[in-house]
Design goal:
With about 450 residues, this protein is of the alpha/beta class. The chain is about 35% helix and about 15% strand. The chain has one domain: Alkaline Phosphatase, subunit A. It has 16 helices and 13 strands.
């Protein structure tokens, strides 16, 4: 139970839980890892950042960027054998088609929320870590002195989660990432505008977006907001909602409870409406606001065979939207390489969407996003929060491809990516000094060289 160390200690006993945490290999050391190699890798992507920045005019620090993890949000109609009367998420579907959007390949099923959160904030992929490190939030982040993330680009950053803050050690993790505030139930920064739906014990997404709007309007300049919702969390068999018959299931896969699908479909339809209202409201704001909306994983309610339907059971919905003010000041949609992405792609994608300059690490992430297939763990297995399986590559057509089929250039990018992830999380931290330096200074150093 790496996702909740206290519960693990209660169930397993403190000795076993302690030994579980001691017997952890963070990541296998890549070949040719050394100080000299790391310097070469950094220099390579410093030059790449210079090239990218010639064509960009904005800075992330001037934007209001929202990473919105929508709990368990994924269209049931994509699951083999499941069919609803109507699409329960018409607005999100339209947003993904008319803006930057598509399918996000999750590295979890039925759980693992904070793993997707970790990947979006850091740009690192869970599949690069060893099998014994399935939950970076509890096993890794608290132990590191330096945790580079997108938060570093902003003078002000806020995390919002309309639930308790102890799961996945978020109260500790957000401090490590450098967030200025963490708003959760019981925190000194209270969750306001609290709404619930029917009999659900969870605060609704209406609550999440109302509090997010407060934060957007409280800051005149750019900021980063990490919003993690709770409305559509399990269980789904308690009849929380007065289900909407318009989105009822007509058929479900073998072993799937139709009532759970109906309750879940009603919940995500509420989310769809709340997202629609939120987009209307941010379009009225006279400063650049961009939201990355994504489902973290599917709910664990489907009886499908994971070996047969595993990839489909790891497909969630995502879109990136910039408000009218942002679009009038350089932000733009794009549709190249957007059909299938990974959570670790979002930093590069939001920089591209907002026409923002990048530092050397973000240039590496851009290469990973633009040149490599989507990275994930083996989608034929469901081992969320237990251990990591082998890595898997999903191309832009949604097909699993082999690493051996990558080009020489692609293999170099992947190796560079693994080198950086290893150095920061498990190695000698040779690159920490480069993360700490503003990219403007790095570009000056390159020019002089």
């Amino acid at each position: 139970m790496f996702y909740n160390q206290l519960s693990g200690a209660r169930i397993n006993g403190p000795i076993i839980q302690y030994l579980n945490n001691v017997d952890v290999t963070i990541m296998t050391k890549p070949a040719d890892y050394s100080a000299t190699t790391m310097k070469k890798v950094v220099k390579r992507y410093q030059k790449e950042a210079q090239h990218i920045n010639l064509h960009r005019s904005n800075r992330l620090s001037d934007q209001t960027i929202i990473f919105n993890l929508s709990e368990s949000f994924a269209n049931p109609n994509r699951v083999p054998g499941v069919k609803l009367k109507n699409n329960p998420i018409p607005f999100v579907t339209k947003m993904a088609k008319q803006n930057t959007g598509g399918i996000m390949i999750s590295s979890g099923y039925g759980g693992g929320t904070a793993n997707m959160e970790y990947m979006t904030l850091t740009g690192y992929s869970l599949c690069n870590f060893s099998p014994t490190l399935p939950t970076p939030y509890t096993q890794l982040v608290p132990t590191l002195q330096h945790n580079p993330s997108i938060v570093d680009n902003f003078k002000h950053s806020v995390a919002i989660h309309p639930y308790i803050g102890v799961f996945y050690s978020r109260t500790t993790v957000y401090k490590k990432f450098g967030f200025d505030r963490f708003m959760y139930l019981g925190s000194k920064y209270p969750i306001k505008h609290q709404y619930k739906i029917d009999r659900s014990p969870y605060l609704s997404d209406k609550t999440a977006y109302a509090n997010t709007l407060d934060q957007i309007n409280n800051k005149q300049r750019g900021q980063f907001i990490n919003l993690v919702t709770m409305q559509n969390h399990f269980p789904y068999d308690q009849h929380f909602y007065n289900n909407n018959p318009r989105y009822a299931a007509t058929t479900v896969s073998e072993g799937t409870n139709i009532d759970s699908v109906n309750d879940f479909a009603t919940g995500i339809h509420y989310t769809d409406n709340y997202v629609r209202n939120f987009i209307k409201q941010i379009d009225r704001i006279n400063k650049p606001v961009t939201i990355v909306f994504y489902g973290d994983h599917l709910p664990g309610i489907y009886g499908n065979d994971m070996h047969r339907d595993g990839l489909k059971l790891h497909e969630t919905d995502y879109f990136i939207y910039s408000n009218k003010y942002a679009r009038n000041h350089g932000a733009h949609n794009f549709d190249h390489n957007t059909r299938f992405v990974s959570p670790n792609d979002f930093i590069a994608m939001v920089a591209k969407q907002t026409n923002s300059k990048v530092n050397w690490y973000q240039a590496l992430l851009t290469a990973v996003y633009e040149k490599l297939p989507a990275l994930t763990i083996n989608t034929n297995e469901s081992t969320t929060n237990s251990y990591n399986t082998s890595s898997e590559l999903v191309n832009r057509n949604g097909k699993i491809v082999k690493k051996s089929g990558l080009t020489k250039k692609q293999k170099q990018i992947l190796h560079d990516y693994q080198l950086i992830q290893y150095d920061v999380t498990a190695g000698k931290h040779y690159t920490n000094k480069y993360f700490k330096s503003p990219f403007v200074k790095l570009n000056i150093l390159i020019s002089k060289a």
